[in-house]
Amino acid sequence: TPLSHIRNFSIVAHIDHGKSTLADRLIQSTNTVADRDMKEQMLDSMDIERERGITIKAQTVRINYTADNGEDYVLNLIDTPGHVDFAYEVSRSMRAVEGSLLVVDSTQGVEAQTLANVYHAIEADHEIVPVLNKIDLPAADCDRVAEQIEDVIGIDASGAIRVSAKTGVGIHETLEAIVQHLPAPKGDIDAPLKAMLVDSWYDSYLGVIVLVRIMNGKLKKGDRIRMMQNGSVHHVDRIGVFRPAMTEIDELGPGEIGFLTASIKQVRDTRVGDTITHEKKGCDKALPGFKPAQPVVFCGLFPVDAAEFEDLRDSIEKLALNDASFSFEMETSAALGFGFRCGFLGLLHLEVIRDRIEREYDIDLITTAPSVIYHIHMRDGTMQDLHNPADMPDLTLVDHVEEPRIKATILVPDDFLGDVLKLCQDRRGIQLDLTYAGARAMVVYDLPLNEVVFDFYDRLKSVTKGYASFDYQMLGYRTDALVKMQVLVNDEPVDALSTMVHRDRAEARGRAMVEKLKDLIPRHMFKIPIQAAIGGKVIARETLSAMRKDVTAKCYGGDATRKRKLLDKQKAGKKKMRQFGKVDIPQEAFISALKMD
Ligand code: GDP
Ligand code: MG
Fold it and tell me: Which residues form the Tr-type G domain (predicted)?
């Protein structure tokens, strides 16, 4: 295809504004997929993604479109993840395309992720076509939303296309706008091969699949290619495009997006953002690469049944093969035995991986409280990263502690503004800005990441009845008065319940935690003290009183089956418990104890 007849684009939107539905409609209306093969949300391929209605990995589809001018075009759509955890993936896929459709729900207007994502598009120098979606709904207010796009984002929305991805209205206009308003890619077919490694993932049949965008030159089946970052050479055994099913073709030219396979064993052997060229007569200057995504949230994953440790290792290694942003190392906990300390891009990423281990590998897990990475500056002048509060060095050796901070942008209707400000204040936030974006307040806060990772998003949704939207970016590290709080159950420290807290909040946090644990831990035959302590000093204490727990005592005499049933139940319940000294602590206690409400 000549360059002038290629258009590469992505769709940016806030979650639920209709990105996937619009993508489906574009695919369907161009007969890219036969109607009988069309299922909803073509691009959200993983089960969990479909279930949760989110896209995690960038997905690609090549669409053939005959425009009103009679010419045939190739349109390449890269669908990007819509969740803040994966913002990094969004910004990098944007570098592979020249334009974006900005989809805004015309009943809702601009939201926090609309802003975050459109800024990625602007940074990547995209031409942007605004699309007002869901015009079939009575609450649609296109004029107001178009005005808001101009006010808040500062792009011309007078020509915004009015669309119902549901009914198909405006889909033809959208396709025409892509052809007419988005620029064709540039590139030189005679220059040495220069291709951007946009993404890679593991496929159990084909091995590692590499998504590439060709900048210059031609990539053919059988070529010997070189990854410019580490110099490794591979033999290309397949080239193809997504329609959206994988379809092999013979070559890819400038401006085109497609995949290659080259008997690469591990996703880790490919570096996203790397430049691919030919082994011989390669290009001499690589594209500016991008930094790898860094995990920011850490937690421990332990098997409920210690016998499943090897299975857990196996499942974690398999998942990591396909996800370079997920990190892990072995961890031993006095309380929980053998497990892994794992790093994630955010809470959603954590949940997705945990779900997959539990469902696809059928392993019951204990997840410890998520934590961020602290910088511990020692008195001897050295600095160490702390991934696990349980490993906090002795306080007498520590000079000061730094924690990561974020810049959070929250859009919220006026009515709930007070609640949002209070929530941010409670989480040690510093207000940076408060402006109005149409009928909504836009609040910008500097917040400690550790106050956000756990349940901030849930709290925000609940205090605003779901009306607030949220996005964040990392700001860097700052010193604060942080200490390690320990929890002792029956006088024994439970390392998996250790957390870093701000000194001023420690007492309140400690009290809340022991009160919660008192409810979460079942009564035993003896009484159990539950304490929170900082450096040996107890700051809160509760006592769980004793009881008899012989459940069968309730069955008088005869009914043996009922007795057995009750005992079985007790045993099953016990499997979900962990013993600490003489005390059983239920699995959900480790997370619930840390919720702050
Ligand atoms: P995404 O999160 O941006 O990918 O959003 P989806 O495409 O999953 O859409 C979110 C919800 O809005 C789904 O329930 C869709 O069926 C619905 N939806 C999408 N487009 C339209 C539309 O044009 N009209 C109406 N009424 N509903 C729509
Ligand atoms: Mg979607």
Answer: 4-186
CA dihedral 104, 107, 113, 114 (to 10 degrees): 30
pLDDT tens per residue, range 395-423? 889 999 999 999 999 989 888 999 999 99
Residue 292 alpha carbon to ligand 2 centre in Å: 24
pLDDT in tens, 515-552: 999 988 888 888 899 999 998 899 999 998 887 555 55
b/e per residue 407-444 (b: at least 16 CB within 10 A): bbbbbbeeebbebbbebbeebbbeeeeeeebbebbbbb
Q: Is the CB of 113 under 6 A from ligand 1?
A: no
**What residues are designated binding site?**
16-21, 133-136
Tell me how far apart the alpha carbons of residues 226 and 235 are, in angstroms, rounded to a whole number: 9
Nearest CA to ligand 1 atom 25: 134
Binding residues for GTP: 16-21, 133-136
Strand order in the sheet with 161-162: 59-66, 72-79, 6-13, 99-105, 127-133, 161-162
Nearest 5°: phi and psi at 53?
Answer: 65, 30
ipTM of the prediction greater than 0.85, yes or no: yes
C-alpha–C-alpha distance, residues 169 and 188, integer Å: 38
Q: Would you state the structure tokens that stand for residue 519, as one six-digit string?
A: 């409810």
427 lines ligand 1 (CB under 6 A): no
φ/ψ of 405, rounded to 5, equals -120, 155
Cα 373 to Cα 295, 332, 348, 354, 384: the distances in Å are 9, 18, 18, 20, 10
What is the C-alpha to C-alpha distance for residues 255 and 73, in angstroms, rounded to an integer? 12
**Cα–Cα distance measured from residue 241 to residue 101, given in angstroms and rounded to the nearest whole number:** 21
Task: Write the CB contacts of 538 (distance below 8 Å, at least 6 apart in sequence).
Answer: 531, 532
Q: How far is the CA of 530 from the centre of ligand 2 (A)?
A: 45
User: Could you tell which of 15, 16, 55, 348 is best to mutate to test the pocket of ligand 1, judged by most ligand atoms within 8 Å of the CB?
Assistant: 16
* Phi (first) and psi of residue 511, to 5 degrees: -65, -45
Mention every residue, 6+ apart, whose C-beta is less than 8 A from residue 539: 485, 506, 507, 510, 511, 532, 533
Ligand nearest to the CA of 81: 2
Q: What residue type is 343 in one-letter code?
A: G
133 Cβ inside 6 Å of ligand 1? yes
Q: Which of 454, 443, 350 is nearest to 112 (CA)?
A: 443
Residue 371 CA to residue 454 CA, distance in Å, equals 8
**pTM of the full predicted structure?**
0.74
Substitution site in 21, 84, 108, 348 for ligand 1 pocket (most atoms within 8 Å of beta carbon): 21
Identity of the amino acid at 230 = N
Alpha helices in 230-298 (DSSP H): none
The upper half-sphere exposure of residue 472, i.e. CA atoms within 13 Å in the direction of its Cβ, equals 23
Phi, psi of 517 (to 5 degrees): -60, -35
- Ligand 1 nearest atom to the CA of residue 19, by list position: 3
Q: State whether the beta carbon of 21 lies less than 6 angstroms from ligand 1.
A: yes
- Residue 407, amino acid: K
Q: Ligand 1 atom closest to Cα of 103?
A: 3
| β-bridge partners, 375 | 385, 402
